Amino acid sequence: MTENRIDRAALKRNLRRAYRSNPAAGVADFLAREIDRRMQERLDYVRLAPQWILDLGCGSGHSLSALQARYPEAALLGVDAEASLLPDANATTSFYLAADAEQLPLSANRFDLVWANLLLPWLSDPMAMLREAMRVLKPGGLLMFSALGPYTLRELRAGFDDGHAHTQTFIDLHDLGDLLLATGFSDPVADMEMLTLTYASLDALIAELRAAGVTCAMQNRRKSLAGRGLRQKLEAHYESLRASRADGRLPVSVEIVYAHAWKGDSDERGQKTEKQMISVVPLRMGKAERSR
Predict the structure, then answer these.
(1) pLDDT value of position 61
(2) CA distance 144 to 114
(3) Model pLDDT, residue 173
């Protein structure tokens, strides 16, 4: 089945095009940077003094800069499957490696913290990434990541009825919890929040998705240009959403999932119980306005 498979060549094309259009920033990553900031805030409540930090899907290295400021004594390694996104190693104190997060060329039990901001929607097999994170973490090490939940871009998906994928496949919070436990992580905690981005026009929304390199890269996406009729249906759908809003703008829902879990250490954290439950923090609502 190809419904849930990523077209990796298409994904790389999207990212390279986005980078070429905005090389100074890498991608138009307003949302990724905001989510990264909120992830960083969660570290305020974690007792951790890492010696080695691994950032999976590091892109242009924004997360590593903030992590280095927080943990100045740590050595940091950024990994991304798309080499063109990686910064110049001579211009940073971090190390970088072009590699696949689902099959890391790294030794086991090496890192104290594995970080992954919004990587999961771009993986065909998130479970493989979690296994690799478990493998390279030291006992007692922490995995912290963010993902997008299934309500993300729901307005866009609802505007199509052609049987093709028009967004990535997004994983439910509780399914992520199950994956963490199945991989062997201990004490998983997850929470989510809903953001609403708004746009002045459909063209502005589509342009921002393209600029960020996050247009659909699923195998079963439409590979030919959409006809005029499909575009008109999509516009009519969004105009009906605009009419229902007091601000007269087009809404885009984003469901953000934050999660962390530990690689068990029998000496410090105790033996795993026969049955574990994922702890879910209550949902928070948010709103972000975009002047596009």
Answers:
(1) 84
(2) 6
(3) 84
pLDDT at 219: 52
Residue 215 CA: distances (Å) to CA of 38, 53, 60: 24, 29, 19
Which amino acid, residue 250?
L
Q: Which of 157, 160, 167 is nearest to 14 (CA)?
A: 167
* H-run or E-run covering 182: helix 173-183
Question: What pLDDT, in 10s, does the model give residues 56-88?
Answer: 998 878 899 999 999 999 999 999 987 777 877
Give the torsion through C-alpha atoms of 260, 264, 270, 272, to 10 deg: 90
Beta bridge mates, 105 = none
Length of the chain: 292
Pick from 121, 127, 126, 105: nearest CA to 54 = 105
| Structural domains in the chain, sorted by start | 8-289 (3.40.50.150)
**Token pair recorded at residue 37:** 């900031």
